[in-house]
Amino acid sequence: MNIIYPPYVDPQFQTLFERIHSPRVCIDNDTCRDCTLVKVDSANKHGLLLEMVQVLTDLDLVISKSYVSSDGGWLMDVFHVTDQLGRKLTDEGLIRFIQQAVEARREEDAKEVRTCLGRIVGAKLPAQYTVFEMTGTDRPGLLSEISAVLKDMNCNVVSAHLWTHNARMACIAFVTDCTTSKPITDLERLDLLRDQLCNVLRINNGCRDERRAVRAMVLSRLTHAERRLHQMMFEDKDYEGVGGADDRKKQDGVGTTVSIDHCQERSYSVVTVLSRDRPKLLFDTVVTLTDMKYVVFHAAISSKGSLAIQEYFVRHMDGCTLNTESEKRRVVKCLEAAIERRNTQGLRLDVRTYDRIGLLTDITRVFRENGLMVTRAEVSTSGDSVSDTFFVTDSSGNDIDYETIDRIRQEIGNVEVITSCNLVKRSNSTANGNGQERPSFFSIGNLLWSQLERFSGNFGSIKS
User: Fold this and answer.
1) What are the helix (H) ranges across 46-186?
2) Could you give the CA distance from residue 215 to residue 224 in angstroms, rounded to a whole number?
3) Residue 306 and residue 29: Cα distance in Å, rounded?
4) Whole-angstrom Cα distance, residue 442 to residue 231?
5) pLDDT tens-digit series, residues 359-401
6) First and final CA of the chain: distance in angstroms?
7) How far apart are CA 205 and CA 184, in angstroms?
8) pTM of the model
9) How far is residue 77's CA from residue 67's CA, in Å, rounded to a whole number?
């Protein structure tokens, strides 16, 4: 019997096409009067669309429209972008930062960038952190108890992110040792920390599997917290939590509707999302489709008034479309959950002060003692200063009265209060109307093909 060996193919050669045709970015401020066009073309690879959307949203930029095409192994995307104030992108440092980030050629001496909201992106970070990832059943005072455990175990919380949805909680805490300001690497101490945190999470969770509830690791760089929170919520199956779709669709008078059809002509599944428009909505839907292993071949994103309309032409990574009703229901539930996780109820409290050990514990203790429940939190430290944002309600999920707000301000000090009506800014800089009227539905698919043909001619020679 003759043995026939297949030809050897160098693994480096398999990625040669992608490395030769790496992403190229063009920033166009001339074509549109009221927005900047960010044009990207590249050899296609799974997850590249998410990377581009992630870069733009991390810079607090608003994507009002987008057209995506990636058939035939090549990707061409166009994003209509402004800052949060509706202005074009004219800062050379910001433009250069976008190009370097998308093109994956970030220079070692690249400077940090300050966004229009004052956040600093690209700042150099300490070498390492110990990261705790926690999931469990949400309840009043949970963040206060978690921060108290970390303080008692001599841990300094450098950064933390907490989301709640459908009675579930996901939290990521980046900590260092209070004494050495270095990551905690002692295995016995890490085991003790995990046990203590699991005791807190297990009060209402009833879960004896400690390793599932709390995970600890040492990272040399910060992970993308928002993407990781989406993944943790998905793994915890928050999309199967309490609350019906009818109740969710009534939020703010604008519904959230996800439908799935089949495009027979091109053998795609067509996922259509209608939702209240808000910042980072595109990121939340794209990250969900990407992590569920669906490939976006074409997409058209637009908004009218306060309503965002997204249409995705997708297949699974194995090339199959969404054929079964159970798979369709699962995708619908997961997309609805991804949109709702950031639609946080409650009052926003911004805390700006000097950093000190145990500050997070003191703030959350004040919340707990005043009967408040934290529905979302973002804690960050830069040098000696702290910038914390909390979304809080009373224990029943209702709004807080102003007497409670004044009492909290006196107990914590240096607190800026932003009411719920200021939480979400309109994402469409060209929108007209009162924003509450549901527009008549039109075919995004027809718009997609015509717009892609028009914009593809504008790529031309792209200069970095």
Assistant:
1) 48-58, 92-102, 142-152
2) 16
3) 25
4) 32
5) 899 999 999 999 999 999 999 887 788 888 999 998 888 888 8
6) 56
7) 27
8) 0.81
9) 6
